[in-house]
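Batch job 17 of 40 flagged for manual review because the log was empty.
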Amino acid sequence: MRNLADLAEMLPIQVWDGVVARRVQGERLTLAVVELAPDAVVPEHRHPNEQCGLVIEGEVTFRIGDEERVLGPGGTWRIAGDTPHSVVTGPGGAVVIDVFAPARDDWDDRPTVGTPDEPAGLVWPRGR
């Protein structure tokens, strides 16, 4: 990955059904712009990476351990490594930023979606 890049130049990866991510991959962290389709479900899972994030647009119902909350734009989360968590979007879908440390190398084998000329119906940033 180049040190300076535009999000529009990055092919998204398919993380789950209805969930795609474009990654800025560092040596020790991953920053991802994640687009979730309407009514998308990120099933409960866990990973060793610490995760923090922010809702850019839309609405998500986030569950971390035993805590659950509906988050809209500006809503944030922090997830300690190996803590179970899940997400469900509302009917409008959502765009979120996720940051993981250490870097998410377990996403390296995920398939890309679309081509550089056809970016798979991505919605963010608006007005591109």
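Reviewer: the log was empty due to a logging misconfiguration, but the result itself is present. The chain has a mean pLDDT of 93. Unflagging and moving on to job 18.
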